[in-house]
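We treat protein structure as text, and this decision shapes the records that our systems exchange. We quote a single record here, exactly as it is kept in our systems:
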Amino acid sequence: MLDISLGGALLAAELSLPVGASAELRSGLGASSFTTEVQVRRSVDLPAGVPLNGLGAMFLTMDERSRRSLEDFLRKASQ
């Protein structure tokens, strides 16, 4: 995960996924867990020499625990 916001994330992935593909994203945010369904919205060029695929993904659904984890993480990151 390269970047994250309330609405989505920029991911670096070994596999290339087509725009419109859906997937489950599971990650840790600080000390909390985070799980959400995402949809790939765009392909992103990563810096030269990075052998991964850049994916812009939008969050579709997440449970309340993951929503709170994300909000807490972003609040702390902005301070």
